[in-house]
């Protein structure tokens, strides 16, 4: 990539919002695969864009539907297909075949293909994330990669991201947007210049830790009666089906009514999990699902699994 193909942004969020603004007119549509990161809705509303969700299912690990199903959802208003790979909230890592299918669809229908790749390093079980960067030469005018420092360096507070494209019109447009807000944070940019000195061993260690946490969470969830879960392939999230009719009510109950006695401190504890319905664009989907982020250390993850098991046994649906 050359310098003119990269626009520095104030976080990955601004990169996404810039991309929406650059490629869409008001009321244009962008295809997304649900469940998807809920904040995409905010960027769509700000830019008067409509997200068109296509359902993926827990039964096959939330992998993409067929080309035929995707193409059925393309209309005259469709301007782009947008993915997150590895995926938040599902933990899915899309295969090379899936990426090639999306590139084929983008070429056939002259659609932009946007890829949010903030979790690029977090792919497990010897899987490798297939980046849209690999297809930049094949679809130079259609591919847009969105990225951020926040996940790989655990720097969510440092608001610095990027938008990458070989389309000169797109890059010219987002530069004008960036000029209108002057600059991303100077301190953040100075900090970022030093991150190239971070050794690969740091990333290897962090990835190993998250993979171990993933293994502990998955094994523990599989032991809980009625829980439906697939083994997350990347990022640090998973969508889990619970034996309840309304996961949002259950999540509220965990915080307001349920308490688990702590053997060590004599105090009481609970857990906080996110109802998954907010990650769907289609009404009434994900009603019995939750998103779990395995960002706790392994000791606390094991305790949280015990708390969840006990809570499900006591919950009166």
From TrEMBL:
<keyword id="KW-0663">Pyridoxal phosphate</keyword>
<dbReference type="Pfam" id="PF00155">
    <property type="entry name" value="Aminotran_1_2"/>
</dbReference>
<dbReference type="GO" id="GO:0030170">
    <property type="term" value="F:pyridoxal phosphate binding"/>
</dbReference>
<keyword id="KW-0032">Aminotransferase</keyword>
<dbReference type="InterPro" id="IPR004838">
    <property type="entry name" value="NHTrfase_class1_PyrdxlP-BS"/>
</dbReference>
<feature type="domain" description="Aminotransferase class I/classII large">
    <location>
        <begin position="3"/>
        <end position="257"/>
    </location>
</feature>
<dbReference type="InterPro" id="IPR015422">
    <property type="entry name" value="PyrdxlP-dep_Trfase_small"/>
</dbReference>
<dbReference type="GO" id="GO:0008483">
    <property type="term" value="F:transaminase activity"/>
</dbReference>
<dbReference type="InterPro" id="IPR015424">
    <property type="entry name" value="PyrdxlP-dep_Trfase"/>
</dbReference>
<dbReference type="InterPro" id="IPR015421">
    <property type="entry name" value="PyrdxlP-dep_Trfase_major"/>
</dbReference>
<dbReference type="GO" id="GO:0006520">
    <property type="term" value="P:amino acid metabolic process"/>
</dbReference>
<dbReference type="InterPro" id="IPR050596">
    <property type="entry name" value="AspAT/PAT-like"/>
</dbReference>
<comment type="similarity">
    <text>Belongs to the class-I pyridoxal-phosphate-dependent aminotransferase family.</text>
</comment>
<keyword id="KW-0808">Transferase</keyword>
<protein>
    <recommendedName>
        <fullName>Aminotransferase</fullName>
        <ecNumber>2.6.1.-</ecNumber>
    </recommendedName>
</protein>
<dbReference type="InterPro" id="IPR004839">
    <property type="entry name" value="Aminotransferase_I/II_large"/>
</dbReference>
């Amino acid at each position: 990539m050359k310098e003119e193909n990269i626009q520095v942004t104030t976080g990955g969020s601004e990169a996404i919002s810039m991309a929406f603004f650059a490629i869409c007119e008001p009321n244009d549509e962008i295809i997304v695969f649900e469940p998807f990161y809920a904040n995409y809705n905010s960027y769509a509303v700000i830019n008067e864009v409509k997200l068109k969700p296509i359902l993926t299912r827990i039964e096959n690990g939330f992998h993409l539907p067929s080309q035929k199903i995707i193409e059925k959802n393309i209309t005259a208003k469709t301007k782009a297909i947008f993915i997150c790979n590895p995926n938040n909230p599902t933990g899915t890592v899309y295969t090379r075949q899936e990426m090639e299918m999306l590139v084929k669809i983008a070429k056939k229908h002259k659609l932009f293909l946007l890829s949010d790749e903030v979790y690029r390093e977090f792919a497990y079980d010897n899987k490798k994330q297939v980046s849209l960067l690999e297809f930049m030469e094949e679809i130079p005018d259609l591919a847009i990669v969105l990225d951020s420092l926040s996940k790989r360096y655990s720097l969510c507070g440092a608001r610095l991201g990027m938008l990458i494209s070989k389309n000169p019109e797109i890059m010219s447009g987002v530069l004008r947007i960036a000029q209108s807000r002057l600059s991303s944070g100077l301190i953040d940019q100075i900090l970022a210049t030093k991150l190239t000195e971070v050794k690969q061993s740091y990333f290897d260690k962090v990835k190993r830790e998250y993979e171990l946490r993933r293994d502990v969470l998955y094994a523990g969830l599989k032991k809980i009666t009625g829980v439906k879960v697939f083994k997350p392939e990347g990022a640090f999230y998973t969508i889990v089906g619970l034996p309840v009719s309304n996961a949002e009510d259950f999540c509220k109950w965990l915080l307001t009514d349920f308490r688990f006695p702590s053997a060590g401190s004599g105090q009481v504890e609970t857990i906080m999990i996110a109802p998954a319905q907010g990650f769907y664009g289609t009404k009434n989907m994900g009603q019995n699902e939750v998103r779990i982020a395995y960002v706790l250390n392994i000791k606390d993850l094991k305790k949280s699994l015990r708390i969840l098991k006990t809570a499900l046994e006591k919950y009166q649906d």
